[in-house]
Amino acid sequence: MIAIIDYNAGNTRSVINAIERLGFHPVLTAEPEQILQADKVILPGVGHASSAMEELDKRNLIEVVRKVQKPFLGVCLGMQIMLEHSEEGDTPCLGLLPGSVLKFESKSEKIPHMGWNTVTHTDEAMWKGINAGGYFYFVHSYFVPKSEFTTATTDYILPFSAGIKKDNFNGVQFHPEKSATIGEQLLMNFLKENK
Amino acid sequence: MLTKRIIPCLDIKDGRTVKGTNFVALRDAGDPVELAARYAEEGADELVFLDISATHEGRTTLIDLVRKVGEVINIPFSVGGGINSKDIVYDILQNGADKVSVNSSAIARPALIEEIAYAYGVQCVICAIDAKFVEGSWKVHTHGGRKNVGLDLFEWARQAESLGAGEILFTSMDHDGTKEGYAIEALKQMNDMLSIPVIASGGAGKREDFLEVLDNDIAQAALAASVFHYQEIKIPELKTYLKENGISVRI
After folding, report:
1. Which CATH architecture has domain A2-192?
2. pLDDT band at B242 (very low <50, low <70, confident <90, very high)
3. Nearest to A47 among B45, B94, B120 (CB)
């Protein structure tokens, strides 16, 4: 069973649509037991870090997410709040990975970083069959700095983490659910991953 | 490298795609879901849906259409027309759209931009602005171009940005439907002034028009409708042409 965490995130329907197009039947849920029993768990998210954490807290899901042992994927804001802290609203986050989410600063480049950008990646299973330099769709004003947990990198203003991974916890900054066939490939890789 | 975006715009009236010249003389341009699927397949980077009947003929619900489009296409899309509260935004996003565009309702009540941006993030709010060059300056218009609201284009764009708009979609009503190119000077001025992305709209007639507006940082995205609907310009060929001319595009 694929669980999509239901916490009022704006891109939830898009994620469900993309997964259904791949032939799966995800369950949208805020039930702790369902989330912990799922084979795959996806945390969508767009908007403010503080409001996302509030929405998780309201549903008593913060500890639940921390306990997930099956393959987990955070998307966009869902990835950012996997870290310990976000500069957006000075928000304490889930702490699934160490580090802080920072705000883009630039006088010459547009913010938000919005549109299709290239991604270079490591050999992690989730990136199988995806060409280096493939285009994914991004929309964000904050970023996860590069670290030992970075599995994919994109360059905008500076090189930042387009993908992260620690143990069973994966995250992508871009929107695979809106990244045409290459995004579908990545979702498929995640859904087929068996550990 | 971040690419420039090509954005087909689907004006929707009573569930059909329509296109007019200078905001009047509408003609039918097909089923929006089929068109959307075709554009996604052809390599469009994003789609914009505008319910043009919404403001002056009363709001008809777009939700069914949004849901159908969301089920079919795998690229981002925005929905606009008659959006005047964050509750409507919730419905639109929950049915699979990624962004909304606000226009006359935000002019009437600018805090609307702030409310949507706070609830769903700045990336979710496009401020669409229709303007005409009137007596030496660009004036914002609403109601399909019939009403000059007495606002300066650049002042309103700056205010929208500070309220939390994530993008500006500027349509020159003087250029819309003419197929003689985008409002280059006004776009350039706006883009230099703002730190958020600018979508150019109104006037695309040939591929050189896209090149002109996407080169030299005049806009981050180019929107067009009829040239795509009637297949006068095909997106794959357009993108190849842009790439050959040094524009970074997703192919």
Report:
1. 3-Layer(aba) Sandwich (3.40)
2. very high
3. B120
